[in-house]
């Protein structure tokens, strides 16, 4: 019937999208050691804490938060020769990562001109032109490739069916995923798909979710991987 053919076509599109998301995420994976050579672990934690607080005040989405964090981490990890970023430039780089995230398809988060947003976040201490110059330098360092899939993007896809079973699962998993942001070793140790699935599995265990939730998670998690891939959840 028509409905069945449409359903099959939609499933094929979702399958391809999930696999492409996972493959893109893995393609741009970086070394956490390289990240820490450019920015000390405690400094990075403070950056993440500032982003979480600032985005909450500004009403920016979780999508923007995870994208900004990933963009900044990718930039630092690509610093040549493990060169550390000077503290004076750190806030400028932070603001330029925010700009890139908000420009990269997340403009719905911004209800006012971007210059006004940056000026407010910088408390008038960093000239907007300096942020734009840093943004261009960041783009060059990243090979003009931004907007790569985040762990939160994977979580949203895995939650597509779970919200119909119990919305609390996705809310708790989202909170757990936020907690990993401050710990780069944990956040980047495994593929984003695995991290998102693990957060959901822990949320299900905590909430004593029904078997249907676990079945949906396992089925949708498999969409991220090709049939010939030998990637599984960690022991």
How would you describe this protein?
The chain is mainly α and 235 residues long. It has helices at 2-27, 32-38, 41-58, 62-77, 87-103, 114-122, 128-141, 151-162, 167-181, 184-189, 192-207, 211-221. The model is unreliable at 2-10 and 231-235 (pLDDT under 50).
Notable characteristics:
235 residues, mainly alpha, disordered N terminus
Helix content: over 70%
- Give Rg in angstroms: 19 Å
Overall SS class:
mainly alpha
Question: Residue-averaged pLDDT, rounded?
Answer: 86
H/E topology pattern: HHHHHHHHHHHH
- Low-confidence spans: 2-10, 231-235
Q: For the report, how would you describe the main beta sheet?
A: none
Please give a quick description of this structure.
The protein is mainly alpha-helical. Helix content is 71%, strand content 0%.
List the helices and strands and how they pair.
Elements: H1 2-27, H2 32-38, H3 41-58, H4 62-77, H5 87-103, H6 114-122, H7 128-141, H8 151-162, H9 167-181, H10 184-189, H11 192-207, H12 211-221
Helix pairs in contact: 2-4, 3-4, 4-5, 5-6, 5-7, 8-9, 8-11, 8-12, 9-11, 11-12
């Amino acid at each position: 019937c028509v409905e069945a053919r449409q359903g099959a076509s939609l499933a094929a599109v979702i399958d391809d999208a999930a696999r492409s998301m996972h493959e893109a995420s893995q393609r741009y994976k970086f070394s956490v050691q390289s990240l820490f050579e450019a920015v000390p672990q405690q400094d990075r934690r403070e950056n993440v804490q500032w982003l979480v607080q600032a985005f909450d005040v500004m009403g920016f989405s979780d999508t923007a938060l995870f994208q900004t964090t990933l963009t900044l981490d990718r930039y630092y990890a690509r610093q040549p020769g493990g060169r550390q970023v000077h503290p004076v430039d750190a806030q400028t780089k932070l603001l330029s990562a925010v700009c890139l995230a908000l420009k990269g398809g997340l403009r719905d988060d911004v209800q006012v001109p971007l210059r006004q947003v940056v000026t407010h976040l910088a408390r008038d201490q960093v000239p907007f032109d300096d942020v734009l110059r840093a943004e261009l330098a960041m783009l060059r360092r990243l090979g003009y490739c931004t907007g790569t899939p985040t762990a939160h993007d994977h979580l949203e896809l895995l939650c597509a069916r779970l919200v119909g079973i119990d919305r609390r699962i996705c809310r708790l998993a989202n909170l757990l995923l936020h907690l990993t942001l401050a710990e780069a070793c944990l956040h980047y140790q495994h593929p984003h798909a695995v991290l998102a699935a693990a957060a959901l599995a822990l949320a299900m265990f905590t909430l004593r979710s029904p078997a249907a939730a676990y079945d949906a998670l396992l089925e949708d998690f498999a969409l991220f991987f090709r049939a010939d891939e030998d990637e599984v959840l960690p022991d």
